Amino acid sequence: MLAERNVNVPASEIRLIYNKIIGRTDVFDMTAGIPDFDTPEHIKDAAKKAIDDGFTTYTHNAGYIEVREALAQKLKRDNNIVADPETELVCTAGGMGALMLANMVLVNPGDEVIYPDPGFVSHFAHIKLAGGIPVPVQLKKEHGFGFTAEDVESKITPKTKMIVLNSPNNPTGGVISNMELKRIAELCIDKDIFVIADEAYEKFRYVDEKPLFIGSLPGMKERTVSIFSFSKTYAMTGWRIAVATGSSKIIGAMTKLQEHVIAMPTSIAQKAAAAAAIGPQDCVEEMLQAFRKRRDLITKGLNDIEGVDLQPPGGAFYAFPDVSAYDVKSFDLVHKILNETNVVTVHGTAFGKYGEGFLRLCYAVSTERINEALSRLDSYLPKLL
Predict the structure, then answer these.
(1) 3-class state of residue 307 by DSSP
(2) Residue 84 bridge partners (DSSP)
(3) pLDDT tens-digit profile of 293-339?
(4) What is the pTM of this model?
(5) Structural domains in the chain?
(6) CB 81 within 8 A of CB 216
Protein backbone atom coordinates (compact mmCIF):
# COMPACT_ATOMS: atom_id res chain seq x y z
CA MET A 1 0.00 0.00 0.00
CA LEU A 2 2.72 2.47 0.91
CA ALA A 3 5.10 4.16 -1.51
CA GLU A 4 8.53 2.58 -1.81
CA ARG A 5 10.24 5.65 -0.36
CA ASN A 6 8.81 4.71 3.03
CA VAL A 7 10.84 1.52 2.95
CA ASN A 8 14.00 3.20 1.68
CA VAL A 9 14.06 5.79 4.46
CA PRO A 10 14.53 4.21 7.89
CA ALA A 11 13.19 5.72 11.09
CA SER A 12 15.69 7.42 13.37
CA GLU A 13 17.19 4.84 15.72
CA ILE A 14 17.48 7.56 18.35
CA ARG A 15 13.74 7.12 18.76
CA LEU A 16 14.22 3.45 19.54
CA ILE A 17 16.05 4.55 22.66
CA TYR A 18 13.90 7.57 23.45
CA ASN A 19 10.65 5.61 23.23
CA LYS A 20 11.88 3.28 25.96
CA ILE A 21 12.09 6.11 28.49
CA ILE A 22 8.96 8.09 27.71
CA GLY A 23 7.21 8.87 30.98
CA ARG A 24 10.11 7.70 33.16
CA THR A 25 11.43 10.13 35.77
CA ASP A 26 14.18 7.88 37.10
CA VAL A 27 16.54 8.16 34.12
CA PHE A 28 19.41 10.49 33.23
CA ASP A 29 18.55 11.35 29.64
CA MET A 30 21.55 12.35 27.51
CA THR A 31 19.97 11.62 24.14
CA ALA A 32 18.22 14.66 22.69
CA GLY A 33 20.15 17.65 21.36
CA ILE A 34 18.05 20.25 23.15
CA PRO A 35 19.78 23.17 24.91
CA ASP A 36 18.63 23.36 28.53
CA PHE A 37 18.21 27.12 28.26
CA ASP A 38 15.06 29.13 27.77
CA THR A 39 14.63 31.22 24.63
CA PRO A 40 16.03 34.70 25.46
CA GLU A 41 13.48 37.25 26.62
CA HIS A 42 13.98 39.74 23.78
CA ILE A 43 13.17 36.99 21.28
CA LYS A 44 10.03 35.91 23.12
CA ASP A 45 8.99 39.57 23.44
CA ALA A 46 9.32 40.01 19.67
CA ALA A 47 7.04 37.01 19.12
CA LYS A 48 4.44 38.35 21.55
CA LYS A 49 4.56 41.74 19.87
CA ALA A 50 4.14 40.12 16.46
CA ILE A 51 0.93 38.48 17.69
CA ASP A 52 -0.36 41.70 19.23
CA ASP A 53 0.49 43.63 16.05
CA GLY A 54 -1.40 41.20 13.85
CA PHE A 55 1.44 39.39 12.10
CA THR A 56 -0.63 36.21 12.06
CA THR A 57 -1.45 35.70 8.38
CA TYR A 58 0.31 34.26 5.35
CA THR A 59 3.66 35.75 4.40
CA HIS A 60 5.74 35.65 1.25
CA ASN A 61 6.78 32.04 0.63
CA ALA A 62 10.38 33.05 1.39
CA GLY A 63 9.33 34.98 4.50
CA TYR A 64 8.67 38.62 5.33
CA ILE A 65 11.07 40.85 3.42
CA GLU A 66 11.93 42.79 6.59
CA VAL A 67 12.85 39.50 8.26
CA ARG A 68 15.03 38.49 5.32
CA GLU A 69 16.73 41.88 5.48
CA ALA A 70 17.54 41.31 9.15
CA LEU A 71 18.86 37.83 8.37
CA ALA A 72 21.02 39.23 5.58
CA GLN A 73 22.63 41.51 8.18
CA LYS A 74 23.36 38.49 10.35
CA LEU A 75 24.93 36.56 7.46
CA LYS A 76 27.23 39.45 6.56
CA ARG A 77 28.20 40.10 10.20
CA ASP A 78 28.73 36.53 11.37
CA ASN A 79 29.42 34.45 8.28
CA ASN A 80 30.98 36.83 5.73
CA ILE A 81 28.21 35.90 3.30
CA VAL A 82 26.67 38.72 1.27
CA ALA A 83 23.14 37.79 0.21
CA ASP A 84 20.38 39.70 -1.54
CA PRO A 85 17.39 39.44 0.82
CA GLU A 86 15.00 39.64 -2.13
CA THR A 87 16.35 36.69 -4.11
CA GLU A 88 19.05 34.84 -2.18
CA LEU A 89 17.41 34.10 1.18
CA VAL A 90 14.54 31.84 2.18
CA CYS A 91 13.14 31.33 5.68
CA THR A 92 12.40 27.66 6.34
CA ALA A 93 10.78 25.47 8.98
CA GLY A 94 13.98 24.86 10.90
CA GLY A 95 17.18 23.50 9.48
CA MET A 96 15.32 20.28 8.63
CA GLY A 97 13.02 22.16 6.28
CA ALA A 98 15.96 23.76 4.50
CA LEU A 99 17.85 20.47 4.21
CA MET A 100 14.84 18.75 2.67
CA LEU A 101 14.17 21.56 0.19
CA ALA A 102 17.82 21.80 -0.85
CA ASN A 103 18.06 18.06 -1.53
CA MET A 104 14.82 18.03 -3.48
CA VAL A 105 15.81 20.89 -5.80
CA LEU A 106 19.41 19.75 -6.40
CA VAL A 107 19.43 15.93 -6.43
CA ASN A 108 18.15 13.86 -9.33
CA PRO A 109 17.49 10.11 -9.08
CA GLY A 110 20.81 8.32 -9.41
CA ASP A 111 22.95 11.28 -8.38
CA GLU A 112 25.60 10.43 -5.81
CA VAL A 113 25.79 12.60 -2.69
CA ILE A 114 28.75 12.45 -0.33
CA TYR A 115 27.87 12.86 3.34
CA PRO A 116 29.56 12.39 6.75
CA ASP A 117 29.35 9.12 8.67
CA PRO A 118 28.89 9.23 11.63
CA GLY A 119 26.50 12.05 10.86
CA PHE A 120 23.11 13.59 11.44
CA VAL A 121 20.59 10.88 10.61
CA SER A 122 18.42 13.03 8.34
CA HIS A 123 21.26 13.76 5.91
CA PHE A 124 21.05 10.16 4.70
CA ALA A 125 17.24 10.20 4.72
CA HIS A 126 16.94 13.40 2.65
CA ILE A 127 19.34 12.08 0.01
CA LYS A 128 17.26 8.91 -0.28
CA LEU A 129 13.97 10.82 -0.44
CA ALA A 130 15.34 12.85 -3.35
CA GLY A 131 16.25 9.63 -5.15
CA GLY A 132 19.97 10.12 -4.68
CA ILE A 133 22.61 7.57 -3.78
CA PRO A 134 24.18 8.27 -0.36
CA VAL A 135 27.97 7.89 -0.35
CA PRO A 136 29.38 7.96 3.19
CA VAL A 137 32.76 9.39 4.11
CA GLN A 138 34.08 7.97 7.37
CA LEU A 139 34.83 10.61 9.99
CA LYS A 140 37.89 9.29 11.82
CA LYS A 141 38.79 9.78 15.45
CA GLU A 142 42.44 10.33 14.55
CA HIS A 143 41.41 13.32 12.42
CA GLY A 144 39.23 14.81 15.14
CA PHE A 145 36.14 13.59 13.24
CA GLY A 146 36.63 16.30 10.63
CA PHE A 147 36.14 15.86 6.88
CA THR A 148 39.39 15.90 4.93
CA ALA A 149 39.65 16.82 1.26
CA GLU A 150 41.61 13.62 0.63
CA ASP A 151 38.79 11.47 2.01
CA VAL A 152 36.22 13.39 -0.01
CA GLU A 153 38.22 13.17 -3.24
CA SER A 154 38.47 9.40 -2.89
CA LYS A 155 34.67 9.18 -3.06
CA ILE A 156 34.14 11.44 -6.09
CA THR A 157 32.92 9.75 -9.28
CA PRO A 158 31.37 11.08 -12.50
CA LYS A 159 27.99 10.66 -10.78
CA THR A 160 28.83 12.87 -7.79
CA LYS A 161 26.40 15.78 -7.64
CA MET A 162 26.77 17.12 -4.12
CA ILE A 163 28.58 17.03 -0.78
CA VAL A 164 26.87 17.54 2.59
CA LEU A 165 29.01 19.27 5.22
CA ASN A 166 28.19 19.58 8.90
CA SER A 167 30.79 21.38 10.99
CA PRO A 168 30.69 21.31 13.98
CA ASN A 169 29.33 17.84 13.48
CA ASN A 170 26.46 16.01 15.11
CA PRO A 171 27.14 13.48 16.70
CA THR A 172 30.93 13.72 17.01
CA GLY A 173 31.59 17.40 17.72
CA GLY A 174 34.18 17.29 14.93
CA VAL A 175 35.20 20.52 13.20
CA ILE A 176 36.56 20.82 9.66
CA SER A 177 39.76 22.90 9.67
CA ASN A 178 39.86 26.02 7.51
CA MET A 179 42.64 24.51 5.41
CA GLU A 180 40.58 21.40 4.64
CA LEU A 181 37.48 23.49 3.98
CA LYS A 182 39.37 25.51 1.36
CA ARG A 183 40.66 22.31 -0.24
CA ILE A 184 37.15 20.88 -0.36
CA ALA A 185 35.96 24.10 -2.01
CA GLU A 186 38.69 23.77 -4.64
CA LEU A 187 37.56 20.21 -5.33
CA CYS A 188 33.95 21.32 -5.73
CA ILE A 189 34.86 24.06 -8.18
CA ASP A 190 37.16 21.76 -10.17
CA LYS A 191 34.65 18.88 -10.31
CA ASP A 192 31.50 21.04 -10.56
CA ILE A 193 29.98 19.72 -7.35
CA PHE A 194 27.31 21.38 -5.19
CA VAL A 195 27.44 21.69 -1.40
CA ILE A 196 24.89 21.74 1.38
CA ALA A 197 26.51 23.37 4.41
CA ASP A 198 24.54 22.47 7.53
CA GLU A 199 25.71 25.16 9.97
CA ALA A 200 23.34 24.28 12.83
CA TYR A 201 26.12 24.54 15.44
CA GLU A 202 27.93 27.53 13.95
CA LYS A 203 28.27 29.37 17.27
CA PHE A 204 29.31 26.46 19.46
CA ARG A 205 33.01 26.01 18.70
CA TYR A 206 35.83 25.43 21.17
CA VAL A 207 38.77 25.58 18.77
CA ASP A 208 40.92 28.70 18.50
CA GLU A 209 40.71 28.94 14.71
CA LYS A 210 38.38 31.69 13.48
CA PRO A 211 35.30 30.12 11.84
CA LEU A 212 35.28 29.94 8.05
CA PHE A 213 32.10 29.25 6.10
CA ILE A 214 32.37 27.53 2.75
CA GLY A 215 29.57 29.62 1.23
CA SER A 216 31.73 32.72 1.72
CA LEU A 217 34.68 31.41 -0.30
CA PRO A 218 35.32 32.67 -3.86
CA GLY A 219 33.45 30.62 -6.44
CA MET A 220 31.32 28.80 -3.85
CA LYS A 221 28.26 30.98 -3.38
CA GLU A 222 26.65 29.82 -6.63
CA ARG A 223 27.15 26.15 -5.74
CA THR A 224 26.46 26.19 -1.98
CA VAL A 225 23.27 26.18 0.05
CA SER A 226 24.28 27.47 3.49
CA ILE A 227 21.77 26.68 6.21
CA PHE A 228 21.69 28.54 9.53
CA SER A 229 19.22 27.25 12.09
CA PHE A 230 18.10 29.24 15.13
CA SER A 231 17.23 26.08 17.07
CA LYS A 232 20.53 25.55 18.87
CA THR A 233 22.08 29.02 18.75
CA TYR A 234 19.16 30.74 20.47
CA ALA A 235 17.54 27.77 22.26
CA MET A 236 14.62 27.84 19.82
CA THR A 237 14.25 24.16 18.96
CA GLY A 238 10.46 24.27 19.08
CA TRP A 239 10.12 27.48 17.06
CA ARG A 240 11.12 25.69 13.82
CA ILE A 241 12.87 28.54 12.03
CA ALA A 242 16.03 28.76 9.93
CA VAL A 243 17.43 30.63 6.95
CA ALA A 244 19.01 29.22 3.81
CA THR A 245 21.12 31.24 1.41
CA GLY A 246 22.65 30.56 -1.96
CA SER A 247 22.30 31.55 -5.60
CA SER A 248 19.04 33.15 -6.68
CA LYS A 249 18.37 30.16 -8.96
CA ILE A 250 18.63 27.61 -6.15
CA ILE A 251 16.87 29.75 -3.54
CA GLY A 252 14.12 30.55 -6.04
CA ALA A 253 13.56 26.83 -6.62
CA MET A 254 13.51 26.14 -2.88
CA THR A 255 10.99 28.94 -2.35
CA LYS A 256 8.74 27.57 -5.11
CA LEU A 257 8.86 24.09 -3.63
CA GLN A 258 8.23 25.37 -0.11
CA GLU A 259 4.95 26.88 -1.36
CA HIS A 260 3.70 23.36 -2.05
CA VAL A 261 5.00 21.86 1.20
CA ILE A 262 4.27 24.27 4.05
CA ALA A 263 3.67 27.59 2.21
CA MET A 264 6.10 29.36 4.55
CA PRO A 265 7.38 29.01 8.11
CA THR A 266 5.25 30.44 10.89
CA SER A 267 4.95 34.23 10.69
CA ILE A 268 5.54 34.69 14.43
CA ALA A 269 8.68 32.54 14.39
CA GLN A 270 9.96 34.66 11.52
CA LYS A 271 9.62 37.82 13.59
CA ALA A 272 11.32 36.12 16.51
CA ALA A 273 14.21 35.09 14.25
CA ALA A 274 14.70 38.67 13.11
CA ALA A 275 14.94 39.78 16.74
CA ALA A 276 17.43 36.99 17.43
CA ALA A 277 19.57 37.92 14.44
CA ILE A 278 19.90 41.66 15.06
CA GLY A 279 19.32 41.81 18.84
CA PRO A 280 21.76 41.33 21.74
CA GLN A 281 24.13 38.40 21.27
CA ASP A 282 25.33 38.08 24.87
CA CYS A 283 22.85 35.22 25.37
CA VAL A 284 24.76 33.17 22.79
CA GLU A 285 28.08 33.82 24.53
CA GLU A 286 26.58 32.76 27.87
CA MET A 287 25.44 29.45 26.39
CA LEU A 288 28.81 28.92 24.70
CA GLN A 289 30.69 29.40 27.97
CA ALA A 290 28.32 27.06 29.80
CA PHE A 291 28.73 24.38 27.14
CA ARG A 292 32.50 24.85 27.19
CA LYS A 293 32.60 24.13 30.93
CA ARG A 294 30.35 21.11 30.52
CA ARG A 295 32.45 19.88 27.63
CA ASP A 296 35.57 20.02 29.78
CA LEU A 297 33.74 18.30 32.63
CA ILE A 298 32.40 15.41 30.57
CA THR A 299 35.67 14.97 28.67
CA LYS A 300 37.67 14.55 31.87
CA GLY A 301 34.98 12.43 33.50
CA LEU A 302 34.67 10.00 30.61
CA ASN A 303 38.42 9.69 30.14
CA ASP A 304 38.76 8.85 33.83
CA ILE A 305 36.59 5.77 33.26
CA GLU A 306 38.64 2.68 32.47
CA GLY A 307 37.96 1.57 28.89
CA VAL A 308 36.64 4.92 27.61
CA ASP A 309 38.59 7.18 25.23
CA LEU A 310 37.32 10.62 24.29
CA GLN A 311 39.07 13.40 22.42
CA PRO A 312 37.71 16.82 23.47
CA PRO A 313 34.89 17.72 21.07
CA GLY A 314 35.77 20.66 18.85
CA GLY A 315 32.22 21.98 18.77
CA ALA A 316 28.47 21.39 19.25
CA PHE A 317 27.40 19.83 22.58
CA TYR A 318 27.93 16.13 22.10
CA ALA A 319 30.56 13.74 23.41
CA PHE A 320 31.31 10.77 21.15
CA PRO A 321 33.57 8.49 23.19
CA ASP A 322 35.27 5.38 21.86
CA VAL A 323 33.97 2.43 23.89
CA SER A 324 35.28 -0.34 21.67
CA ALA A 325 37.43 -1.64 24.54
CA TYR A 326 34.33 -3.25 26.03
CA ASP A 327 33.93 -5.46 22.96
CA VAL A 328 30.15 -5.00 22.96
CA LYS A 329 28.11 -3.76 20.01
CA SER A 330 27.21 -0.13 20.63
CA PHE A 331 23.47 -0.85 20.38
CA ASP A 332 23.73 -3.58 23.01
CA LEU A 333 25.96 -1.43 25.21
CA VAL A 334 23.40 1.37 25.26
CA HIS A 335 20.78 -1.04 26.57
CA LYS A 336 23.12 -2.53 29.12
CA ILE A 337 23.93 0.95 30.43
CA LEU A 338 20.24 1.89 30.54
CA ASN A 339 19.25 -1.27 32.39
CA GLU A 340 22.09 -1.13 34.90
CA THR A 341 22.54 2.62 35.52
CA ASN A 342 19.45 4.43 34.18
CA VAL A 343 21.77 6.62 32.11
CA VAL A 344 20.37 7.02 28.59
CA THR A 345 22.84 7.32 25.72
CA VAL A 346 22.67 6.74 21.96
CA HIS A 347 24.53 4.01 20.10
CA GLY A 348 27.02 5.22 17.52
CA THR A 349 25.45 3.18 14.73
CA ALA A 350 22.33 5.33 15.01
CA PHE A 351 24.45 7.82 13.05
CA GLY A 352 25.85 5.46 10.44
CA LYS A 353 27.83 2.25 10.14
CA TYR A 354 31.11 3.97 11.03
CA GLY A 355 29.66 4.87 14.42
CA GLU A 356 30.19 1.34 15.66
CA GLY A 357 32.30 1.30 18.82
CA PHE A 358 31.12 4.75 19.93
CA LEU A 359 28.33 6.28 22.01
CA ARG A 360 26.81 9.75 21.87
CA LEU A 361 26.11 11.69 25.05
CA CYS A 362 24.52 15.13 24.87
CA TYR A 363 25.96 17.49 27.50
CA ALA A 364 23.35 20.22 27.02
CA VAL A 365 22.19 19.34 30.52
CA SER A 366 23.09 20.63 33.99
CA THR A 367 26.51 19.95 35.52
CA GLU A 368 24.73 18.11 38.34
CA ARG A 369 23.18 15.67 35.89
CA ILE A 370 26.49 15.25 34.06
CA ASN A 371 28.30 14.47 37.31
CA GLU A 372 25.68 11.94 38.38
CA ALA A 373 25.69 10.26 34.98
CA LEU A 374 29.50 10.06 35.04
CA SER A 375 29.44 8.54 38.52
CA ARG A 376 26.98 5.86 37.44
CA LEU A 377 28.93 5.05 34.28
CA ASP A 378 32.18 4.83 36.24
CA SER A 379 30.62 2.37 38.67
CA TYR A 380 29.43 0.08 35.88
CA LEU A 381 31.45 0.23 32.65
CA PRO A 382 34.83 -1.06 33.96
CA LYS A 383 33.06 -4.25 35.02
CA LEU A 384 32.68 -5.10 31.34
CA LEU A 385 36.43 -5.31 30.72
Answers:
(1) coil
(2) none
(3) 999 999 999 999 999 999 999 999 999 999 999 999 999 999 999 99
(4) 0.96
(5) 5-39+283-384 (3.90.1150.10), 41-278 (3.40.640.10)
(6) yes
